[in-house]
Amino acid sequence: MRFESDSRVLVLMHGWIVAFQSMTWILNRSLWRLCAGLFG
Fold first, then answer.
1. What span, in angstroms and rounded, lies between the C-alpha atoms of 27 and 29?
2. pLDDT of 1-40, one tens digit each?
3. Sign (positive/negative) of CA torsion 1, 11, 14, 30?
């Protein structure tokens, strides 16, 4: 196993984790706003 491919996989995993976190953050914000609009 070479180091270049390993670092590339690490970068890919990091990007996927960041995208997943931002997606869940946006979903949580929209859900919170929806609940506030319904019950606020």
1. 5
2. 566 788 999 999 999 999 999 999 999 999 999 999 988 7
3. negative
